[in-house]
Amino acid sequence: MAASPEGKPPPRLHGVVMIALPEGDDGWPSSSPAGEAAVAFLDRAGAADADAAGWGEEERRRTAFSLRRAAGAVLALAALAVAGYFCLYAGAGTGAALRFLSAPAEEQGQGGRASFLLPLYSKARAGAGAGVVTGASDGAAQNSTAAALPLRGNVFLDRQYYTSISVGNPPRPYFLDVDTGSDLTWIQCDAPCTNCAKGPHPLYKPAQGHIFPPSNSLCQEIRGNQKPGDTSKQCDYEIAYADRSSSMGVLAMDNMQLIAEDGQRENLDIAFGCAYDQKGELLNSLANTDGILGLSSAAISLPAQLASQGIISNAFGHCMTTDPSGDGYMFLGDGYIPRWGVTWVPLRNGPDNTYSVEVEEVNHGDQQLRKLTRVIFDSGSTYTYFPREAYLNLIAALKDVSPRFVQDDSDKTLPFCMKADSPVRSVDDVKQLFKPLTLQFRKRLFIFPRTFTINPEDYLIISDKDNVCLGVLDGSEIGYGSAIVLGDVSLRGKLVVYDNDENQIGWIQSDCTNPRKQSGFSFFLRKALHNQFL
């Protein structure tokens, strides 16, 4: 260090004092001369000694400018970190980041669109002893002129999870199977009933004024093949299922009561099916429930109806515990979507309203089972389905797992079961012997992997004979010879989000026991990032 002209060393600096000034018009500290002199370097002797030390006006300006540049660099790095999350991990691209930062505060969880939380309950398979109510008299059922209309029903009717929703005035509870593969929400009803299962609650009875006419736009949505000159006085429909079951009904509207995040009950007008004639195996599957909650991407689905009224964002999700006998929850709206850690992949556009995505390869451990194919996320299917080639390859791989297991064709629980050389009480006893199934999606920016992992406990089932059975079935038997259908057995232990606004689907590991309302960034951080981005 150089000596002073008097031969004495300059006094030692002892600290830095930062003086905050009022903001300028643009929200940042003023750049006036007063702002430039806002930083002073002091020692024990005071400011005069700073000048003696060689800290003139020019040096103070230079230092203040450097500190402002450092603060700006910190904010820029924070903005880049947030942008990196949105672009690389959330998979939503920079557009989503900009929309998030430019959105008003009320849309960031501060009083904007609502979200609704619903419980999920697991159920046992419906038995063959389901009661059936039959009969017909004058009413909507006799007036029906319905033909098979292009409503989509789930390909596998043994649904595992249901929720409880109250309908009508006064509201009455109904148990509805949760089905992301079905368009229309419908409830068995007395219109009168022609053929109905004896479910857990009395049949819904619609008021005459609640029946839709054929001219209604929602009726046109579900009756896309209606011929000109149709003279029917009500909106009839029929849903045909892959197992040749069917449900016939009439489109109605009534109050549906949902519980918002604050615990308040809201009554909303919702269009749904009043189903008065069920046929086939569908009657057995309705032994424990009253109908189906349609959650597909169709305009008639419940989330789409609520979104079209501006009540929620067109997004929803479900979370099922890893225990098959455990429960879970679902939500409508975006209030419970995690802000961090979700793996997002773009939805594949198609005419069938299913939630499907493209997967590059399917593996069992290190062994490839199949290359490029389509994956459908379907909460209405209990089991998972593979294309026949991948299914046979998986069975061959499982046969080579260990000499301890031999195929047991006498066990009819599922198509493929294996007997061990000692009793198996739970999947935990054998899961370490099996390898996970992985669905590999296209990498983000060709670098960051996106994988959906199905652990052994999520595709193996222990039968009543203490055998290990494969919870993956041959998709060709239900008409899905080239696509994978992910059912409940493989969706457990994950929060799965269906975002129709952004045309994407996402998932994150979860114990599914504690739904958490998400909040946006703090106002001040969002303002700073907004200034950096926009």
Plain-language structure description:
This protein is of the alpha+beta class and 534 residues long. It has a 6-stranded mixed beta barrel. It has a 4-stranded antiparallel beta sheet with strand order 19-18-24-25. Helix 3 (57-89) crosses helix 4 (93-102) and helix 3 (57-89) crosses helix 10 (523-533). The chain starts with 14 loop residues before the first strand and ends with a helix.
The helix count comes to 10
Assign a percent range to the helix content.
Answer: 10-25%
- Average pLDDT level: 77
Sheet of most strands: 6 strands, mixed, barrel
From the alpha carbons, calculate the radius of gyration and give it in angstroms.
Answer: 31 Å
User: Which band does the percent of strand residues land in?
Assistant: 25-35%
SS-derived structural category: alpha+beta
Outline the low-pLDDT stretches.
Answer: 19-50, 86-111, 124-138, 141-157, 521-534
Span between termini:
46 Å
**Could you give the count of β-strands?**
31
- Large-scale geometry: globular
Oligomer: single chain
Q: Topology, please?
A:
Blueprint: E1 15-18, H1 33-36, E2 39-42, H2 47-52, H3 57-89, H4 93-102, E3 116-122, E4 132-134, E5 151-152, E6 161-167, E7 172-179, E8 186-188, E9 195-197, H5 217-222, E10 236-240, E11 246-259, E12 265-279, H6 282-285, E13 291-294, H7 302-308, E14 315-320, E15 328-332, E16 343-346, E17 356-359, E18 361-364, E19 367-370, E20 373-377, E21 384-386, H8 388-399, E22 406-407, E23 417-419, E24 437-444, E25 448-454, E26 460-462, E27 468-470, E28 472-474, E29 483-486, H9 488-491, E30 494-499, E31 504-509, H10 523-533
Parallel strand pairs: 5-10, 7-13, 8-12, 20-29, 21-28
Antiparallel strand pairs: 1-2, 3-6, 3-15, 4-9, 6-7, 6-11, 8-13, 10-11, 11-12, 14-15, 14-30, 16-31, 17-20, 18-19, 18-24, 22-23, 23-27, 24-25, 26-27, 30-31
Helix pairs in contact: 3-4, 3-10
